[in-house]
Write a structure and sequence with these properties.
By secondary structure, the protein is mostly helical. 63% of the residues lie in helices and 5% in strands. It has 2 domains: 8-81, no CATH class; 83-169, His-Me finger endonuclease fold (3-Layer(aba) Sandwich), CATH 3.40.1800. The chain has a two-stranded antiparallel ribbon. It starts with 7 loop residues before the first helix and ends with a helix.
């Protein structure tokens, strides 16, 4: 019996003649009566988790590797059912909801805040949320190209002005 074996706990219970339900019922009853027991149980669990990190990681990685195809397929199915849900989750880091995202896009006339393009980018379906990296405040929605340009310039307005002057100076028309 190895720790990497997914049925480790089942085999352990059989060896020690322990029923899952009896074990859980006893702990549950004790937790209800004694709040200190709950803290002790949590501390012992925390200790066990920290002492058996390698064992837990090995078991988890073996389980994932054996079921990887199934998990990937489930993820694709969940995404296909509701792709907006996954996009909404990515907006959380900017404290935006789907409704505020779409209202901001409407304020920008359904286009990029810089160039006005109505297409977000080559591979993306949504516009990028532009934000100030020091304050975290959302500035607007940009197409992928403008967002990358701002990022490469490190949001430095002086550098962007120099770049604009450089382009104007060397314009051939």
């Amino acid at each position: 019996m190895t720790y990497a074996d997914p049925d480790y706990m089942t085999k352990w219970r059989v060896e020690h003649k322990t029923e899952i339900s009896d074990y859980n019922k006893k702990d549950h009853a004790q937790r209800q009566k004694d709040p200190i027991f709950k803290k002790k149980k949590a501390n012992s669990a925390r200790t066990w988790y920290s002492e058996n990190l390698e064992r837990r990681c090995t078991t988890r990685s073996v389980h994932y590797r054996t079921n990887r195809v199934k998990y990937c397929q489930q993820g694709r199915e969940r995404y296909a059912e509701n792709p907006e849900k996954f996009f909404g989750r990515s907006l959380r880091k900017y404290s935006l909801t789907l409704a505020t995202y779409y209202s901001l896009l409407e304020l920008q006339k359904n286009g990029c805040a810089l160039c006005g393009s109505s297409t977000p980018g080559s591979r993306t379906k949504h516009f990028c949320v532009d934000h100030d990296h020091t304050t975290g405040k959302v500035r607007g929605l940009l197409c992928n190209r403008c967002n990358r340009a701002l990022g490469l310039a490190h949001d430095d307005s002086k550098l962007l002005l120099k770049m604009a002057a450089y382009v104007r100076k060397h314009r051939t028309s």
